[in-house]
Write a structure and sequence with these properties.
alpha/beta, four-stranded mixed sheet, 25% helix
């Protein structure tokens, strides 16, 4: 059983925090989800209490409240008792480093595969994948491993864009993903643009958002994907 809401981002330009995603959060989380554990460990620029407050200020509009895991003395017990798990965005390297440091990865994975709803955005979506190798973030710390939760068999590249900065000589996002698939030929990569999300309910995969994304796999042309496509195949590991 899987119940995942994997968002590219929390905030669209010109909107308030979480404005675009709140209806999807409300639809995804059951009324019975009262004990919602929030993992703020991706944040670097401000503290965990502020991050918790920021999420709660937005989510009060849909009558949901999170409690940050840093306030628990026994964090693995907090995960075990959670009705839902929420992992915020920020720096993916810092996030996975802290999850290893606090020995939480296995506890979170076990809860997810037993059916506990999981919401992640940006870095929080990255860690649902087999690894964090398709994050955009600078490796500001050295985690114990790049291995992530592995609750889906494909990779996500959040904030995916095909915009090119004029007179900029750096690689495009698609070129960086091409490097990944050359070295990891048996893994799909989903380029997930801002304002879009993947919702997974058991074997059903839904694309939600007005923009179209890209699907990458070695030796195949990059494919445009949208809400019109059947994406159930993404949950089948490639051999």
């Amino acid at each position: 059983m899987l119940h995942l809401l994997l968002l590219s981002n929390s905030t669209n330009p010109g909107q308030s925090y979480f404005q675009w995603a709140l209806p999807h959060v409300a639809d995804f989380l059951p009324d019975s989800a009262k004990n919602i554990i929030f993992i703020p460990y991706a944040v670097v620029a401000f503290d965990y209490n502020n991050y918790e407050d920021k999420v709660n200020k937005a989510w009060q509009q849909v009558n949901k409240k999170v409690r940050s895991i840093h306030s628990f003395q026994n964090q693995r017990e907090a995960i075990e008792n959670a009705d839902a798990i929420v992992v915020g965005g920020g720096n993916t390297w810092q996030l996975i480093s802290m999850l290893y440091k606090n020995d939480l990865l296995a506890s979170i994975r076990n809860k997810i595969i037993r059916g506990t709803p999981y919401i992640g955005w940006s870095a929080g979506s990255n860690i649902a994948c087999p690894s964090i190798k398709t994050t955009n973030d600078m490796p500001v710390v050295a985690p114990a491993s790049f291995q992530a939760l592995q609750v889906v068999p494909f990779q996500i590249n959040p904030h995916y864009t095909e915009d090119v900065i004029p007179n900029h000589g750096g690689e495009t996002r698609a070129q960086r993903i091409e490097e990944y698939i050359q070295l990891n030929p048996q893994t799909y990569v989903v380029g997930l643009p801002e304002g879009c999300l993947l919702r997974i309910d058991n074997e059903n995969v839904s694309w939600i958002g007005d923009k179209r994304g890209k699907l990458f796999l070695k030796d195949e042309p990059a494919k445009t994907i949208s809400g019109k496509d059947n994406l159930q195949f993404l949950l089948n590991p490639l051999q």
